[in-house]
């Protein structure tokens, strides 16, 4: 059961939802179904090219390991 991040297009609320099957996603703040799935930081960490962190430009600082 994956956890997805969403943003409500009506009120701007960001929220996470544990998805079980095909359920309608509604905003917990305003109840709108006008939501969009966000690209999570977890999903994008393996997609970057170049440095493996944002603290340095060479990818060799202590926070890159």
From TrEMBL:
NCBIfam families linked: CxxC_CxxC_SSSS
Source taxon at top rank: Bacteria
PROSITE patterns xrefs: 2FE2S_FER_1
InterPro entries hit by this protein: 2Fe2S_fd_BS, Regulatory_FmdB_Zinc_ribbon, RPABC4/Spt4
Protein name in the entry: Zinc ribbon domain-containing protein
Annotated region (Disordered), positions in chain: 46-65
Species of the source: Dictyoglomus thermophilum
GO molecular function terms noted in the UniProt entry: 2 iron, 2 sulfur cluster binding
Biased composition (Low complexity): 48-65
Stretches assigned to the Putative regulatory protein FmdB zinc ribbon domain: 1-40
């Amino acid at each position: 059961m994956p956890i997805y991040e969403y943003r409500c297009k009506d009120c701007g609320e960001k929220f996470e939802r544990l998805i079980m099957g095909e359920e309608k996603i509604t905003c917990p703040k305003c109840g709108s179904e006008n939501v969009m799935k966000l690209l999570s930081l977890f999903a994008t960490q393996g997609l970057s090219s170049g440095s493996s962190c944002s603290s340095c430009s060479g990818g060799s600082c202590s926070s890159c390991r």
